[in-house]
Amino acid sequence: MAGIASSSAPSVIGLSTIAFTLDPLGLPTSVAIILLIAIDPIVDPILTALNVHPNCAMTVLFWPTITTR
Which of 2, 59, 65, 68 pairs with 40 at a CA distance of 20 to 30 A? Predict the structure, then answer.
């Protein structure tokens, strides 16, 4: 549940979201934060590519309509 809540959030916001989600459940927040810090450098470039790719694709698709006006 904490992973879904912070899946698209940047690191710092994701850490606070995980803390807010795990604390009421009585689960150890420190372990989740350590795992997030260890995995974030691997996942962050993939998320960046997934965010940039659609933007580039839409620019290419709409460029002919923008330049003909």
Answer: 59
Q: Tens digits of per-residue pLDDT, 38-61?
A: 887 888 888 888 889 988 999 999
**With 90 as the cut, is the pLDDT of residue 27 above it?**
no
- The upper half-sphere exposure of residue 43, i.e. CA atoms within 13 Å in the direction of its Cβ, equals 14
Whole-angstrom Cα distance, residue 8 to residue 10? 7
**40: phi then psi, degrees, rounded to nearest 5:** -55, -40
**In b/e form, how buried is each residue of 17-41, taking b as 16+ CB within 10 angstroms?**
bbeebbeeeeeebeebbeebeeeee
* AA identity, residue 57: A
